[in-house]
Design goal:
The complex is a heterodimer of chains A (338) and B (474). Chain A has 338 residues and is of the alpha/beta class. Chain A is 56% helix and 7% strand. Chain A has 16 helices and 5 strands. Chain A is globular and about 80 Å long. By secondary structure, chain B is mainly alpha-helical. Chain B folds into 2 domains: 175 residues, no CATH class; 285 residues, no CATH class. Classes of the chains: A alpha/beta (338), B mainly alpha (474).
Chain lengths: 338, 474
C-alpha cells in the first residue's frame, strides 16, 4: 500500500470515527483564523514594504510636513528624474519643493490629490507621459484602494469628475466599502515576496528611500544589462491609441485648468524624458495636440522628452542620477524663465 | 456556483439545514436531487435540458434492456443510447470545431466553404455526465450491473452535484450501490480537513500560480527560456492543484452525505513512467478510457502493433475529450506516443526486477520533462505561440535577465514562493503522510492552532481575481 493510500485510509477512518464536536471545534478555529487575518490585514499592509507604500508618505506630508510652494506629481519616471531639492535651489527665491511622485501614478491619481494640496502651493509640476494622455481608462485601481487604505479618501467633487470621465463602472472601486478596501489590501502581503526577490536580483534597489524621501525618491541607479535593454526595446509598445488626448483626460485637463485658475496656481504638465528607442509613434503631433489643449484650458505643457542623451537612462524610461541632475536643471530652467 | 464562493457556502448550509429537518430518506434524496439541479442551473438554466435528456434516455434504455433478451435488439438499444449521448456531446462540444476544421481544409484546397457556426454555449460538465451515463448503459448491456429501477436514484447518480461539473467520472457499478444506502449526514475532522485541503490547493496554489502562467503564455516570445520553464512548471502545478483540489472537495462533500466516491489523483508527478503517470492522473478518466475504449479496441491482445495503435487511438480520443481543439488532439497523441514508446522499451528490455536509485531518478526526470512539454501543448492554444514556447523550453537560451520582468506586476516572487511551498508540502505529504490527515488526527490544541493558521493564510493569500476550475470547460 502506498503512502497515499495509507493517508487516504486514515482520512476515511476519521470520517467515521472522529466525534463531531472535534470537527465543530476545527470549524470554529477556522472561523476565528479568518477573523484574525481580516483584523491583521491593515496592520500588515502598512508594515510590509511595497511599491505603493510611498502613497502613505505623500498623504502624510500633505497634512503634516512643512508646507511646500512647489510640488511635483508623476510616476516612477518622476521619482527617478526630479530632485526636488535641486529644483528648489535652482528656482528664484528657493521655494520649498516636494517630489510627490510614486510608482504607477497617472494623471487621474494625482488629480484627486489637487484639492487637498496645502494653500502654500504656488506651482504644481505634473509629469504625464504621452501614453497616459491617450489612455481612456483610469490608472491602476489598486492605487485608489491603496490611497484609501492609507487613509486618503478622495473628495466627492473629484470622484464625480472621474465618474464623468471614465464612467462609474471603471472607477467602481472608489466607492468600495471599508471592509472591501481591507480585503483588497491583502495584495500588499503577497507583495512581500516580490519585494524580497527584487532585493535579491536588484542590489541597487533603495526601496526605503523610494518610500520615505520627499525630494528625490529614486528606486534604482544601476543601468540594466544590454541584453535586457534589447528585450525591453523589442517589446516596447510604440503605437498608441488614435486620439492624442482621450476624452477622459480632456475632462481632467479642463478641471485642472479651472482648479489652477481658482487657486491662482501655476500648473505645468511635463512630458518626461525618454530614451531615443522609447519615443512613441507620431510623437510631435501628439505633443502639439496636448499643447494646444493645454493652452485652451490654461495649462502650460512642456515637452522635455528629448533633453537627455541615451547614456543618461538606466532603462527606456528611467534616468540615472546624472540624468536626473540634467533633467531637473532643464525643468528649473523652464520654470524659472518662462 | 463555484465551491469557493459565498454563494456555494449559503447553498450548502441551506441544503444541510433542510436535510437535517427531513427524516424520510426518499424525500432527502429528492431534495438532494433538486439541489443538484439548482446547483447546475446556477450557470445557465437552459443547461439542464441536455442533462435531463440524457437522464431520461438512459434510464429508459436501461429499463428496456432489462426486459429485452434478443441480442440484436439489445445492441440496437445500446447503439441508440450511444448515438444520443455522443450526439449531444458532438453537437454541443465538437460541432464548431468540426465545421471550422472542414472549412479550413476546404479553403486550403481552394474551395469557398463558409458554413454557419453554432452559437450555442457548451453546457458545463457535459463530458463528465455523458461518461457517467454511458458507463451505466454499457454495463447494463453487458449484464455486469443490475438495472436501476428507481428514477430518483438514477437521476441522482447522473446529477449528484459534487461531481456533476468536473468529476471524478462516476461509474454506475461504483456509485449506484452507494445510493441504495440512506443519506447519513456527517461532519468529521476528516471531512473538514479534506475540504480545507481541496480549497487550499485550488485557491492558495492553483489560482495564485495560474495568473503568472497566463501572463507568460500570452506572449511567450517576450520571455527568456528560464521564464518559460517557470511558467510551464507553474501551469503543471496549477492544473494538478485545480483539478485534484476540486476532486478533494467533491470527495469530502460526498462523504458528508454518507457516500464514497473514488480517488481521482494519486501524486501523478511522482510517477516514473507514462503508464504510472496515467495510473495516478485523472484516474477516473484513464480507467474509463481503459475499460470502455482501449479494451474493446483489443487492448494488448492482438500483438504489438495493434497495441500501439490502440494506445494512440485511446489517448487521441482522451485528448479530444478535453476540448474541441487541435492542441488537445496533439496533447493526446503525445501521451499516446509516450505510452507506446514506454511499452516498446519495456518489451525490448524486459521487466526489470530491481531498479537502482539512479535509474529511477533518471526515468523520473525524463518523464517529468516530457509531461511538461505536453503541458505547453495543452495550455497554449495558439499554434504559433505554442511552437515558440516549445522552442524556448527545449532549446534553452541561457538568458537570465529576469529583473526586466516588471516584477511586482507579474507576482514573480510570489509565484516562486507558492511553487516552493507546493513542492515542500507535496514532498512532506509523500514522506510523512498527508498534512490534512495529520492535522485531523493531531492533539486538539495542535489541530485548532493549525486550522487557525491555515485560515489566516487563506485571508492573506486569497487570489486577487476569482478563477473558475479549469476542468469546468471540459
Amino acid at each position: 500500500m502506498t503512502r497515499t493510500h495509507l493517508a487516504e485510509s486514515v482520512t476515511s477512518q476519521r470520517l467515521v470515527m472522529a466525534p463531531p464536536f472535534r470537527a465543530a471545534l476545527l470549524l470554529a478555529s477556522i472561523a476565528s483564523g479568518i477573523a484574525a487575518g481580516f483584523l491583521l490585514l491593515p496592520v500588515l499592509f502598512r508594515l510590509i514594504p511595497n511599491d505603493l507604500a510611498r502613497i502613505a508618505t505623500v498623504v502624510d506630508a500633505m497634512e503634516h510636513a512643512p508646507p511646500p510652494a512647489v510640488v511635483i506629481f508623476g510616476d516612477s519616471r518622476g521619482e527617478s528624474a526630479v530632485d526636488a531639492a535641486q529644483l528648489s535651489r535652482s528656482l528664484p527665491g528657493k521655494p520649498l519643493a516636494y517630489n510627490f511622485c510614486w510608482h504607477g501614478q497617472r494623471l487621474d491619481h494625482s488629480f484627486v490629490l489637487y484639492d487637498r494640496l496645502p494653500h502654500s502651493v504656488r506651482t504644481v509640476i505634473n509629469l504625464v507621459s504621452l501614453q497616459d494622455f491617450s489612455q481612456e481608462t483610469p490608472g491602476d485601481l489598486r492605487i485608489y484602494r491603496a490611497m484609501r487604505a492609507y487613509g486618503f479618501n478622495p473628495d466627492a467633487e473629484a470622484m464625480a469628475t472621474l465618474e464623468t470621465g471614465f464612467g462609474r463602472p471603471s472607477i467602481a472601486s472608489l466607492y468600495d466599502s471599508e471592509a472591501r478596501i481591507r480585503w483588497e489590501s491583502r495584495w500588499g502581503v503577497r507583495h512581500l515576496f516580490d519585494t524580497g526577490l527584487r532585493y535579491f536580483v536588484r542590489h541597487d534597489l533603495m526601496l526605503e528611500r523610494e518610500r520615505r524621501d520627499l525630494f528625490f525618491p529614486t528606486a534604482y541607479t544601476r543601468r540594466i544589462e544590454s541584453a535586457a535593454m534589447a528585450l525591453a526595446i523589442e517589446n516596447y509598445a510604440h503605437a498608441l491609441p488614435a486620439p492624442s488626448v482621450s476624452h477622459s483626460k480632456t475632462i481632467l485637463m479642463e478641471k485642472l485648468g479651472a482648479w489652477a485658475k481658482q487657486r491662482s496656481c501655476r500648473l505645468v504638465l511635463v512630458i518626461p524624458a525618454v530614451h531615443s528607442r522609447g519615443v512613441v509613434d507620431d510623437h510631435d503631433r501628439r505633443v502639439a495636440d496636448v499643447t494646444a489643449l493645454g493652452r485652451s484650458v490654461g495649462i502650460e505643457v512642456v515637452d522635455l522628452s528629448h533633453v537627455l542623451p541615451d547614456d543618461d537612462f538606466v532603462d527606456l524610461e528611467h534616468t540615472t542620477s546624472e540624468g536626473a541632475r540634467k533633467f531637473t536643471m532643464a525643468l528649473a530652467q523652464y520654470c524659472g524663465h518662462s | 456556483m463555484l465551491f469557493h464562493t459565498p454563494a456555494f457556502a449559503v447553498f450548502i448550509v441551506t441544503l444541510v439545514g433542510v436535510l437535517l429537518i427531513v427524516r424520510s430518506d426518499d424525500l432527502r434524496k429528492l431534495i438532494l436531487l433538486g439541489a443538484s439541479y439548482l446547483f447546475y442551473m446556477w450557470w445557465n438554466p437552459i443547461f439542464v435540458l441536455p442533462l435531463l435528456t440524457t437522464t431520461v434516455i438512459d434510464y429508459q434504455v436501461g429499463r428496456m434492456l432489462e426486459h429485452e433478451e434478443r441480442p440484436r435488439r439489445r445492441r440496437s438499444l445500446l447503439v441508440f443510447s450511444l448515438i444520443a449521448n455522443l450526439g449531444l456531446l458532438a453537437y454541443f462540444k465538437y460541432y464548431n470545431f468540426f465545421i471550422e476544421s472542414v472549412s479550413a481544409a476546404a479553403h486550403a484546397a481552394g474551395f469557398d466553404f463558409s458554413p454557419v457556426l453554432s452559437r450555442l454555449i457548451l453546457p458545463v460538465g457535459i463530458s463528465f455526465y455523458t461518461f457517467h451515463t454511458m458507463s451505466y448503459t454499457i454495463d447494463v448491456y453487458k449484464r455486469e450491473i443490475p438495472v436501476c429501477r428507481s428514477p430518483l436514484r438514477f437521476a441522482l447518480f447522473i446529477t449528484f452535484f459534487p461531481v456533476l461539473v468536473a468529476g471524478p467520472i462516476l461509474r454506475a457499478r461504483q456509485f449506484l450501490p452507494e445510493l441504495e444506502r440512506p443519506i447519513r449526514l456527517r461532519l468529521t475532522p476528516g471531512i473538514v480537513m479534506l475540504i480545507v485541503r481541496g480549497l487550499a490547493k485550488k485557491v492558495l496554489i492553483a489560482d495564485n500560480v495560474g495568473g503568472f502562467a497566463d501572463v507568460i503564455f500570452k506572449h511567450p516570445e517576450r520571455w527568456p527560456s528560464v521564464i518559460i520553464w517557470l511558467a510551464t512548471i507553474a501551469f503543471a502545478v496549477q492544473i494538478y492543484c485545480d483539478f485534484s483540489g476540486y476532486s478533494d472537495i467533491a470527495r469530502a462533500l460526498a462523504a458528508a452525505f454518507g457516500f464514497e466516491i473514488p480517488l481521482n489523483f494519486d501524486r501523478p508527478y511522482a510517477a516514473h513512467n507514462p503508464s504510472e503517470f496515467w495510473r495516478r492522473w485523472h484516474i477516473s478518466l484513464s480507467t474509463w478510457l481503459r475499460d470502455y475504449l482501449y479494451i474493446p479496441l483489443g487492448g494488448n491482445r492482438n500483438g504489438q502493433l495493434q497495441t500501439y495503435r490502440n494506445l494512440l487511438i485511446t489517448m487521441l480520443l482522451g485528448g479530444l475529450w478535453h476540448g474541441a481543439s487541435w492542441n488537445f488532439v496533439l496533447w493526446g497523441l503525445l501521451h499516446g506516443t509516450m505510452l507506446s514508446v514506454h511499452r516498446f522499451w519495456r518489451e525490448w528490455r524486459g521487466e526489470a526486477k530491481t531498479v537502482g536509485r539512479t535509474a529511477q531518478f533518471v526515468s523520473w526526470i525524463a518523464l517529468q520533462y516530457c509531461v511538461l512539454v505536453t503541458w505547453i501543448v495543452f495550455r497554449v492554444t495558439d499554434t504559433q505561440k505554442m511552437f515558440i514556447a516549445l522552442r524556448k523550453f527545449v532549446l534553452f537560451d541561457w538568458n537570465f535577465h529576469i529583473f526586466n520582468l516588471g516584477l511586482g506586476e507579474n507576482s514573480f516572487g510570489f509565484t516562486i514562493a507558492v511553487l516552493t511551498a507546493f513542492i515542500l508540502l507535496h514532498y512532506a505529504g509523500w514522506r510523512w503522510g498527508e498534512l490534512d490527515a495529520r492535522i485531523a488526527g493531531a492533539p486538539l490544541p495542535v489541530a485548532v492552532f493549525a486550522c487557525a493558521l491555515i485560515a489566516m493564510s487563506f485571508v492573506f493569500f486569497w487570489p486577487m481575481a476569482e478563477k473558475p476550475f479549469i476542468y469546468f470547460q471540459f
